[in-house]
Every structure is written in C-alpha cells, then in structure tokens.
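re: that complex we talked abt at group meeting.

here r the seqs, copy pasted straight from the sheet so there may be weird spacing, ignore it
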Amino acid sequence: MPTPNESIQLTLNGEPYAMTAGLTAADLVEQLGLGGRRIAVEINEQIVPKSQLAATPLAAGDQIEVVHAIGGG
Amino acid sequence: MTQLTDTPFTIAGRDFSSRLLVGTGKYKDFTETGAAIAQSGAEIVTFAVRRTNLGQDADAPNLLDVISPKQYTLLPNTAGCYNAKDAVRTCRLARELLDGHNLVKLEVLGDDHTLYPNVVETLKAAETLLADGFDVMVYTSDDPIVARELEAMGCCAIMPLGSLIGSGHGIQNPHNVRLIVEQSSVPVLVDAGIGTASDAAMAMELGCDGVLLNSAIAHARDPLRMANAMKLAVEAGRDAFLAGRMPRRQSADPSSPFAGRING
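got the structure back, here u go
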C-alpha cells in the first residue's frame, strides 16, 4: 500500500496530473471543484457511474476523462 | 376555422409535436442560445460532449442549466468523432451525463474539411450502440442504400445531409432525399446544410418527418427571428406535404373564369 503522502501520476483529459495516492475518483472530482456538477467520468475507457465514483480507487497511470455538455449541433 | 390534425412525430416511441430539432452551437452566449431555442419551438435539442475545462470557475454557467433536461429532450451528438470507437465512447459518456438517457445522434465524420459522414465507421458504431441499448438517430450521406442498411440494423431515425455541415447550401440532392423518405419506415430528417427557411420547408415538402439545424439560426443576423422563421417553415412545409401540391402544367390555366367577361 502506498503511504498517504505518496504521489501518483495520472493522465487527466490528456494532460499529466499528479495526485496523492490512495484517493478515489470522487476525491478527484471534488479536488477539481466539480462536485455536484453535471459531468461524466471515464477511467481507462470505462465509464465510472456517479454512484461508483467514491468506490473507485485511482492508480498510477490511469487515463481519466472528465466531460460535460457544451453547445453543438 | 377547421382544426387541422397531423399524426404524431414519434422517435423511438416518444411523441413530439415540433418537427424542428435544433443545435446549441455557435451562439453568442447562453442567453441567446436559450432564447433562440425557446423561439424555435423545438422539443429535441442537440449538444456536444467535451472535456471539462479544468481549473475553470466551478460556478460558471453550464449549458444544461439553460437547456434543462426537464424541459427538453436532449440529444447528445458525437460531433468531432472520426472513428466508431470514439463515437461509442462519446455516447456512453453522454448516457452517464444524462443519468441513463439513451437517445443519441450518431455522426462519424470523414475529414475536417468536408465533415462528410464516414459511413463505414458509422455502420460499425451503430451496430455497437444498438447492441448496447441506445436509440440511435443517425447522421449519414444521402445514399439510399446506406440509409436502408442503417434502418435494417435498427436505427430509430435516418438523418441524411442536405449539404455539408455548416455550409448553408440547402438540399443539394432532393431526389435522393425523396428516395430515402419513400423507402423508410422510421422517421427521416434532413440534418445539415439548411441555410434558410425555404430549405427547411423544402425538406418537409419532400416528405421528411423533421429537420435538424443549428447554424442557420445561430449564424443568422437575428437568431431569434430566424428561429421563428424555421418554426413556421417546418410547419408550412409539413402542411404543404400533407395537402399535396397541385400538378405542374406546361401552359397557363386562369384562376378567373372566361365566361361572362365584358369583352366576350
């Protein structure tokens, strides 16, 4: 198990992102200031339902996409 | 005055009264987006799925605050996808975004110059999405054979282009659109290319069940006025189609009788 202060490297929306080890996808969403916002999260090309965010631990190397709705045709 | 009736416009088992579907792109701001869409009378509204801007103000307005899923039937698109895999991922993200809502507009594009549909990838994506329980409204070329394949697979609406996305060139091949309308048992909508009200009316006069447009309203000098024009054009075109146009003649045929003329 990593110690709480250890940092892991993720890829978030195509960019490198460092995060404290041992946290969940819900923690990441909160950290981004997106808690309660209408977003969707995908980790390693798999959807993580809202109900599962808090139960989804993040691991080094995870490829994470956080998306929302924007104007389009 | 007689109340005229029409059959309901049904997409994947849901009934709608407006046959105009509109996009939410290219507006000046969300206020204009909301006002134009309200003016259009549209009930089905498309949007795109994109990466959240990280580090943005968390209180910044969100499209879905303006275009509420409670008020409108939201139709996420796969614009910007150039292969089946990306389109399928985008649809799954959209379904999560909308709490399980499974109606999507599938578009898989060929290149960024024409945005012409890549029908090979579109067919692949449709197959995966349909197997995954999506209701798929599919943007495609005006090829009647491809349209027939997509319908046979189970797509709930066939949406041939009128002309290139955002071009405003209207319906370049009305004969193909009519062939698709005549052969299809699911709704057919012209999606892309509509430039002005007469283009929308033409789509409906060809027998299309609806029209999907965005730029024609958003890029008009006065979007609200054009939204209203599109609403009326779709209604007028639909009525003209149902009424059945008069036969064309090679010579004139006076509307006023010859008999009783003062110079007779």
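couple things i noticed - Chain B has a mean pLDDT of 95. Chain B is about 35% helix and 15% strand.
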